[in-house]
What does this fold into?
Amino acid sequence: MNKIFAIIIGILIVGGAFWLVISNQIASEESTRQTQSFPAPRASRQAGEKAPDFALQNYNGKTVRLADFAGRPLVINSWAAWCPFCRKELVDFAAAQKEFGDKVVIIAIDRAETRGIAKKYTDELGVMDGMIFLLDPSDNFYQSIEGFSMPETIFVDKNGVIAEHKRGPMDIKEIRAKIKKLLP
It folds into this structure.
């Protein structure tokens, strides 16, 4: 009887110690979550500011700069192959580029993926005609627009000033309306 009683006491002591360790860890994690602060997202923070400068390579290795498009309205989209919303949006951007022709330049900047991944994705979508696709291996453009969602798009007027910063996906109707606002 004493052996059984000793075993039960041992199990209770080990179980109690385990419970104390786990409950302290949970309390510590909860305290950390409550003290962490994250910056509040700001919609259209950059409207009215100059578009961020960039020098990025296209799929062929040619360096393309923001300055190459001086005096022209731009739509600059930040996308990635892993983004489910980007698939439809890139197709809509390609349609908008065909529709508006040389009145606007649509640039799609891939976020930190290899040329192989980005090109395979855009080839599968059939969106290469007319649009400019750039690679940003360091993800600097996305960071320069303070991106926090996917996709993110800035609409830049002919003076190089951001007219609007759209966070999240758009459909073709919204893309058309925003481009029309950029045109004289």
